[in-house]
Design a protein that fits this description.
Radius of gyration: 23 Å
Bound molecules: adenosine-5'-diphosphate
Largest sheet: 7 strands, mixed
Helix content: 25-40%
Number of strands: 23
Shape: globular
Length: 496
């Protein structure tokens, strides 16, 4: 009897395995953290073998924990830290270098040069991305240029390149399958998101041989079967999706105009834009959300650099709260922020301001201001920044949003979500299952194997734990937003 879908959630700091029941309930969850490697200032690496071994041990323990057997698994979904790359030997599976992590800035100079050589528009129009070390292309190029013999081996077709999903698929299938899905491919800066092919112009710009790249398939698709000598059974790997896109799917944001925000250390907003890749110069990224049923769904993506991190600053920097969760308790001690605004532009501001020289400010202080006002204003800054990105998305796609689905650590904060609803003027919904990333991968995997029959069936699973409806008067709302924008203007261009 097939009872569970297995989701592998391979994140930046841990590998996790979750077994979901058909209802979306979590039957078993195991998490294994692994080491971050910082060889130099600004460089970040992972050991690919540790990624693989922590992922495998999480799988084994997740089954053991509830006494589940392989026969009960209806399919495996993979979701992963995006953009991080591994290059390995096609025959032996041995990596030629550590995984270069999305956070790694080692290719910043290369990116600057690409920008000054005028490649920005070409890259944006083909990939929907901005030139940045974040994306995979320059990281692969770095390995080929810096690891002895790598370029010659690549030219002879002896190496495989891939994001973490590809690395896991290769290992899970005993080296038989070298593949990725549209959502991960769209983060490499090598994939043409309109023609859905590896782009020849970009491959030659980055000097990357096509023979080493994975085949690209829909996100809900049978990529291959696990090797029973490794996995204990031959099971279909039937869903693959990058983490943020998987969260959008796990939140059941299946239709155009639906969006989610993940309030983590940073904030990650994704809006489903249906069959249309809206490529604009707004600074938002255009990306593939997923491939399903012969169609590709696109998304707009924007991020807030400092989201939950602002509360970490209150805790660790100012030391006026003991934990991030305390921010709610203290904020409630005052009826509002007393006219105080905090702009947490600690390392510049992203969308829609795009100012690396902006720096944080606390403004609107009077003799009546106390620490609770400052805590509350910091919490509110998360909502204002989120609203700014959503406003930009609505204008870029010409779509009016009608609700916001939320997840991530700070989405536990009711006061934050109440204020978010007020500032947006639309309801904010927190689902019961906040493991939306793994759930998205599980749903995609379950659709490909027939465990789920349709999106409608999946939608039945979605239970809202709490919905926050806007209560603020329109007049107050626009006044607050106006004040916020004035505060942001004062934070801009400070560090010039
Ligand atoms: P990440 O995956 O980026 O590490 P998480 O989704 O685990 O982040 O969320 C962690 C962030 O959420 C931290 O920055 C923390 O300050 C914030 N956070 C956690 N709990 C709360 C809470 N109850 N209220 C507000 N913020 C919170």
């Amino acid at each position: 009897m097939k009872k569970y879908i297995m989701a592998l959630d391979q994140g930046t700091t841990s590998s996790r395995c979750i077994l979901f029941e058909k209802s979306g309930r979590i039957a078993s969850l195991v998490q294994r953290e692994f080491a971050q490697i910082f060889p130099k200032e600004g460089w970040v690496e992972h050991d690919p073998m540790t990624i693989w071994s922590t992922q495998m041990s999480a799988v084994t323990e997740a089954l053991l924990k509830i006494g589940a057997s392989w026969d009960e698994i209806a399919g495996i979904g993979i979701t992963n830290q995006r953009e991080t790359v591994v290059v390995w030997d096609k025959k032996t599976g041995a990596p030629v270098y550590n995984a270069i992590v999305w956070q790694c800035r080692r290719t910043a100079d290369f990116c600057k040069k690409l920008e000054s050589d005028g490649y920005g528009e070409l890259i944006r129009s083909k990939t929907g991305l901005l030139i940045d070390p974040y994306f995979s292309a320059t990281k692969i190029a770095w390995i080929l240029d810096n690891v002895e013999g790598a370029r010659e081996r690549a030219d002879r077709g002896e190496l495989c390149f891939g994001t973490i999903d590809s690395w896991l698929i290769y290992n899970m299938t005993g080296g038989k399958v070298h593949a990725t899905d549209y959502s991960n491919a769209s983060r490499t800066m090598l994939f043409n998101i309109k023609t859905l092919t590896w782009d020849e112009d970009l491959l030659s710009l980055f000097r990357i041989p096509a023979v080493c790249l994975p085949s690209v398939y829909p996100s809900s698709y049978i990529f291959g079967y696990t090797d029973s000598a490794i996995f204990g059974a031959s099971l279909p790997i039937s869903g693959v999706c990058g983490d943020q896109q998987a969260a959008l799917f796990g939140q059941c944001r299946f239709n155009e105009g639906e969006l989610k925000n993940t309030y983590g250390t940073g904030g990650f907003l994704l809006m489903n834009t249906g069959s249309e890749p809206y490529i604009t110069d707004s600074g938002l990224l255009t990306t593939i959300a997923w491939g399903l049923d012969g169609k590709v769904t696109y998304a707009l993506e924007g991020s807030v650099f400092v989201c939950g991190a602002a509360l970490q600053w209150l805790r660790d920097g100012l030391k006026i709260i003991d934990s991030a969760a305390d921010s709610e308790y203290y904020s409630k001690k005052v009826k509002d922020s007393g006219g105080v605004l905090v702009v947490p532009a600690f390392s510049g501001l992203g969308a829609p301001w795009w100012d690396p020289y902006a720096r944080g400010i606390i403004i609107g202080i009077t003799r009546a201001t106390n620490k609770y006002h400052i805590i509350r204003a910091t919490l509110e800054s998360m909502a204002y920044q989120t609203a700014d990105v959503i406003d930009l998305m609505q204008r870029a796609a010409g779509i009016k949003v009608s609700a916001l689905a939320v997840d991530g650590g700070a989405s536990a904060n009711n006061l934050l979500l109440e204020f978010q609803a007020d500032i947006l003027g639309v309801p904010v919904e927190r689902p019961e299952c906040v493991e939306t990333t793994a759930l998205g991968a599980a749903y995609l995997a379950g659709l490909a194997t027939g465990f789920y029959s349709s999106l409608d069936e999946i939608k039945q699973n979605r239970k809202i734990s709490q919905a926050f409806t806007p209560k603020m008067e329109e007049e107050t709302r626009s006044l607050l937003i106006k004040k916020w924008r004035r505060a942001v203007e004062r934070s801009l261009n400070w560090n010039e």
